[in-house]
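Please annotate the following for my students:
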Amino acid sequence: MPNLSKESRRFIDDLRLYLFSSGKNSEEINEIAEELEVHLAEAEKNGKPIEQVVGESPKEYMEMISGEMKFDKKAWLKYIPLIIFGAISFSVIGQLMENMRLSYSYAMIGGSIVVSILFILLIFGVFKYTTSRQVSRVKEFFFIMIPIFVNMVLFMGLVFWDMYTEMPGIELGVTASMSVGVILLAILIWISVWAKTAVLPVMLAAVHVPELLLRMTSLGLEARLITGLLMTYAVIGLYFFYTVKKMKKAEAAAG
């Protein structure tokens, strides 16, 4: 691997993410990134700035490269179901904590798929926006939180709708329900490791653990809901504070 400056290394990482978010083939992305590494290393060796290789606009350069590559349908037939299952795991694990059984209306199942696809489109839109504009890591983190919050709110809305509306659906036994929960939890962990972020497990814990703990108290339903909501926001806020502080330290060290 060529010895590159932090600026060049970040540009290559952003290009990889931009192309991945655009649905390009992983092998082709690696080939392009490796070729660009060589050009940037040579430019740096000769004292030339990164702009002499990629131009003044990172966005235009990334769009040009993306336009020359084909959309990888086969790979995304694998990725999309995994991401959908990871998103659905929020409501599934919450329901298992409630009564150890899964019961969903067909409308809930269809709505979950639609919300998950919307989440995929939003998160990849954010990736393409932040990488092509080379925003700071702190801003990038806040941009990424937008689709995560939207997804969480929509799923919670679907869950409440399913709880208070009588519609046909399916109900699984305890064994089948627990098996589905274990599979989805494993997928959630895999996605978190693959994305190199703990944001999904933290969100999952922030949403469900307070409610689980408050059930052991003598608080009434309304008090539990309010307290649980406050605890959820407190956990998410602390995680944001820790992450942003860590990013700022990394950027200060890089600068």
Notes: The mean pLDDT is 80.
